[in-house]
Design goal:
Shape: globular
Number of helices: 2
Radius of gyration: 12 Å
Low-confidence stretches: 88-96
Mean pLDDT: 90
Order of helices and strands: EEHEH
Distance between the termini: 19 Å
Number of strands: 3
Strand content: 5-15%
Strand order of the largest sheet: 1-2-3
Structural class: alpha+beta
Length: 96
């Protein structure tokens, strides 16, 4: 899936059957960087909201740091959305 924002051409790979998201540099268990050369905060907000709306994720395997579960995925997404003033967006994304 195309996941722009952190860097141009960003992608995540999702194995829906196994419930595994390979998030690369898009989402990892740390403060998300969005002010790098080539970053686009508006696109990153949309990407993070999209990732937060995914259901059935058993494991997220990032390009950095350790793997984590769906609960942590939501926590990281929520923290980023709140940090960028988009907390209200969370309520419009459906279940999960």
């Amino acid at each position: 899936m195309h996941t722009p924002g952190h860097s141009p051409g960003g992608i995540c790979l999702l194995d829906r059957q196994a419930g595994v998201l390979f998030s690369g540099d898009t989402l990892y268990d740390s403060r998300l960087f969005d002010e790098l050369p080539g970053s686009d905060i508006n696109n990153y907000l949309k990407t993070i909201a999209r990732l937060r709306s995914l259901a059935g994720i058993r494991m997220v395997c990032p390009g950095h740091d350790a793997c984590f579960d769906e609960g942590r995925l939501r926590e990281l997404c929520d923290a980023y959305l709140i940090r960028r003033g988009q907390a209200a967006t969370r309520t419009t994304m459906g279940p999960g």
